[in-house]
Amino acid sequence: MIGRGPRRTAAPEGLRAAGFPVAPAGNVRWPPHALRRQDRGPPASGCPTAGDAGKDDTTMVYRWLAPLLLLCLGLPGRADEIVVGQSLPLSGPLGEAGRNVKDGIDAYLARVQREGLLGRHKLVWRALDDGYSVERHTQNIRQLVVQDKVDALGLSAGTSHIDAAYPTMREAGTPLIGAMTGASALHGAQRALIYHLRASYADEVRQLVAQAVSVRQRRVFAVWQDDGLGRDAFAALEIALRGAGIELVGQQGVALAQMDGAALAASVRAARPDALFALCVTPCGVKLLSGLAAESGVARPTPYMLSIVNGEVLAKSVGPAARGTVISQVMPNPRLATSPLVQRYQQDMRSHMGRDEFSYFSLEGYVVAMVTVEAARMALAASPRRSMQDAMKLMLRREIEGIPVSSGDDPGVRPHPVTLSMIGNGGRLIH
User: Fold this and answer.
1) Statement to judge: residues 105 and 172 lie in one domain
2) Staple partner for 234: which of 4, 54, 224, 246, CB 3.0–4.6 Å?
């Protein structure tokens, strides 16, 4: 709050130039346009004018004056910045993947800052940890959208998480740029505010089943996470197996917190499959492979897993038992610098991390930041400024470094790619 100014004080030249009243010489309080208590509020024009001079100045009310000074002098504010909010698991069962994502985002934002890619404009990125909890994720999104009024949301993880938070996004018209899930429920026209940079689980499952067919595997056991992720992927698997003529010899839904890896492994062995589809997150895969490894000398089915699984963490956690696991991937190989995108990613990750530490998850974060910055540039360049939702609609007609953008009501310019990797000797991913 600006208090009553001293007597005989001249107005600053900046205020004079902006059209504010100027204090004349003599015993005149500054500013001369006081408000009576019953008249609280700014003048109709929004800025103080010379016509306000001479009003009764017995009660000075200035609470609104400070922000108006900034507005009328054209000082920088929210009009020159884009604020992006994000809720992702930085702790909990997907904590390492979430931290990798954030490293990739930070690496690209450091490039934006270093090279001035947004000119005089500013992009603010606010990340909140949800611990892979649906309740915390929903609370975070409400805080970011309703209280902080962010312009857009960045990459979130979890089918059930995003689905639960979507009503808040829809009410405010706030877009989500990137979803670390491929569930079909989030690809429909009723979820048009979600912009996808990765393939659907159905696309991933079809590629995995095609691989099983190519090596003549005919008996499949499926373990699926009993939530939006697992149910969606399992439904896609049943369709793909029927189309390929492969028998589903067993299946079991699991709750991650109560999962008994040893008991589940016993059920798998009893069904004698030659392929095991684990449609769940990394900790589920770790428990399952650890349970299978506990009994030596028994033939083990080939494990197949989705891109949501962190292959490096899986290999580190279960050791040689992870070898041969096939994982679908929805981003380019982060270790193969054969494209300008991956070359810049590696360069920026080295600069940000101080070491060669590359992963599919940090590359996905890097790509999300890259797309978000491009949308921000398009929004800020327009006059009047576009919303981030309008900017993202324009992005549907483009590819960003070979990465297509799609939404629930627009498939984009081409399908999202899916490739396969396999955990080899020493825990290295082979492509």
Assistant:
1) yes
2) 224
Contacts of 328 (CB under 8 A, 6+ apart): 204, 205, 207, 208, 305, 306, 307, 418, 419, 420
* CATH number of the domain encompassing residue 356: 3.40.50.2300
- Say how far residue 331 (Cα) sits from the centre of its chain: 15
Quick: pLDDT tens for 152-163.
999 999 999 999
Q: How confident is the model at residue 29 (pLDDT cuts 50, 70, 90)?
A: very low
One domain, residues 392 and 303: no
Give start and end residues of each alpha helix (H) in 84-152.
Answer: 95-115, 134-142
Query: How far is 239 from 243, CA to CA, in rounded Å?
Result: 6
Query: Into how many domains does the chain fold?
Result: 3
Mean pLDDT of all residues belonging to the chain? 85
Whole domain around residue 211: which residue ranges? 201-329
State the Cα–Cα distance between residues 263 and 269, nearest whole angstrom: 10
Closest CA to 211 of 333, 329, 338: 329
Q: Is 10 helix (H, G, I), strand (E, B) or coil?
A: coil
Residue 371 lies in a domain: yes
| Total Cβ atoms within 10 A of residue 192 | 15
What is the structure's pLDDT at 95? 95
CA distance 282 to 305: 9
Q: Is residue 430 part of a domain?
A: no
Same domain, 207 and 324: yes
> What pLDDT does 297 receive?
65
H-helix or E-strand containing 377? Answer: helix 360-381
Is 201:306 a contact under the CB 8 Å cutoff?
Answer: yes
